[in-house]
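Example S7 (structure tokens).
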């Protein structure tokens, strides 16, 4: 054992596999966190009718899992659909989830039991938390991984030095184990096929179905738009700018300082009508919400806690982001979108890009003045042509039928 520093000698806590190691007065105390799973879950029989779904580690009703669930319910198969959520009471009161979906607390012992007894798991994020608790996929169980990005420019997992550093090896090993349990991984393009294989340590079956959450861009959406306008009490004659920046690993929030009023003024001059901005931070940046969204500005609305970003994207008339993959979802609408990224060089050094920002269809600005200039000079016909060329170059196959293809696969699995 390496020599301990005085503070570590008194007390320290580290994780290793399914064990939690506590050091107290130089005495190591090892706690096996997988004990409950081994004792009560490992030998549970599999319910051939049960599907357990998770969105962003206990998040609300959204992303790919939501749109898969909508298609499942449309087909009236009467599966026992279980969603893992952080706060069951809050989600029940929100009314977001369909009544046919059963909610269970994420991270609870009951959640472990539900997973242990389900025929199918559907997730858009890793199950590392449950792996620490001893979760393993048994014979006869299946796992569909939908992931949560589209044509993303940000490097992922295995391709990010900061994620694979020596001190992160426990996370790497859990992530590799997680990936090894995926039977199917959904993608929307040849680009994602190539990236995900390596970046996500995946060796099983890729299904190039498209992303179910993006089906929304190919359907009639007046009801959804009315829902968003009513939720935020936006007059119907106003247009919406959606600002959706990504998070920064170092917690930097200076990069979020958008000149809201100047931007909205110029959008009004360029495109007509009155505009408001819905500002929605990344889930990992929610804690900075009050510091980023100005409270006293009646033209700026806090949309960070709205459950489904796809509904905001399809309702917006224009979007601004930096490196978030949601702008590549929004691109499918062919509506104007802009890049506002004040830290391009630093982000590329810290995290890294799969392709240059300059190769995207979006006009790029690294300060507010440049962003305003890009709005003033925006060429809509050129932008639409650039979007079409980008989609073609990446081999993207989105067509509004990804949910149907995915549920066809689910029905095949559930029949086995």
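Recovered sequence:
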């Amino acid at each position: 054992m390496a020599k301990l520093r005085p503070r570590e000698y008194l007390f320290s806590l580290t994780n290793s596999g399914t064990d939690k190691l506590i050091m107290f007065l130089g005495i190591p105390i090892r706690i096996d966190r997988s004990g409950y799973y081994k004792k009560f879950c490992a030998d549970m029989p599999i319910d051939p009718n049960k599907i357990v779904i998770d969105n962003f580690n206990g998040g609300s009703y959204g992303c790919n899992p939501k749109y898969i669930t909508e298609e499942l319910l449309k087909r009236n198969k009467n599966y026992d659909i279980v969603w893992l959520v952080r706060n069951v009471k809050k989600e029940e009161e929100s009314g977001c989830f369909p009544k046919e979906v059963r909610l269970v607390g994420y991270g609870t012992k009951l959640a472990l039991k539900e997973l242990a007894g389900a025929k199918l798991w559907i997730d858009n994020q890793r199950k590392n938390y449950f792996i620490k608790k001893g979760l393993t996929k048994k014979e006869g169980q299946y796992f569909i991984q939908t992931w949560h990005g589209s044509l993303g420019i940000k490097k992922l997992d295995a391709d990010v030095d900061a994620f694979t550093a020596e001190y992160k090896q426990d996370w790497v090993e859990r992530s590799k184990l997680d990936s090894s349990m995926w039977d199917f991984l959904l993608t929307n393009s040849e680009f994602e096929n190539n990236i995900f294989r390596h970046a996500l340590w995946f060796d099983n079956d890729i299904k190039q179905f498209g992303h179910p959450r993006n089906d929304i861009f190919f359907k009639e959406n007046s009801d959804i738009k009315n829902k968003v306008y009513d939720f935020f009490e936006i007059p119907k004659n106003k247009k919406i700018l959606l600002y959706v920046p990504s998070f920064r690993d170092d917690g930097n929030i200076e990069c979020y300082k958008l000149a809201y009023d100047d931007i909205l003024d110029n959008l009004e001059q360029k495109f007509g009508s009155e505009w408001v901005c819905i500002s929605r931070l990344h889930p990992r940046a929610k804690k900075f919400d009050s510091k980023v969204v100005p409270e006293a500005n009646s033209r700026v609305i806090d949309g960070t806690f709205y459950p489904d970003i796809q509904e905001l994207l399809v309702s917006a008339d224009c979007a601004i982001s930096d490196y978030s993959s949601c702008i590549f979802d929004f691109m499918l609408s062919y509506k104007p979108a802009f890049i506002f990224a004040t830290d391009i060089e630093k982000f590329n050094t810290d995290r890294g890009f799969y392709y240059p920002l300059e190769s995207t269809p979006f006009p790029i600005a690294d300060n507010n003045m440049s962003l305003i200039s890009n709005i003033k000079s925006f060429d809509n016909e050129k932008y639409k042509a650039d979007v079409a060329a980008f989609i073609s170059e990446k081999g993207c196959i989105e067509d509004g039928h990804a949910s149907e293809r995915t549920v066809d696969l689910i029905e095949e699995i559930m029949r086995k």
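Notes on this example. Residues 380-393 form the longest helix (14 residues).
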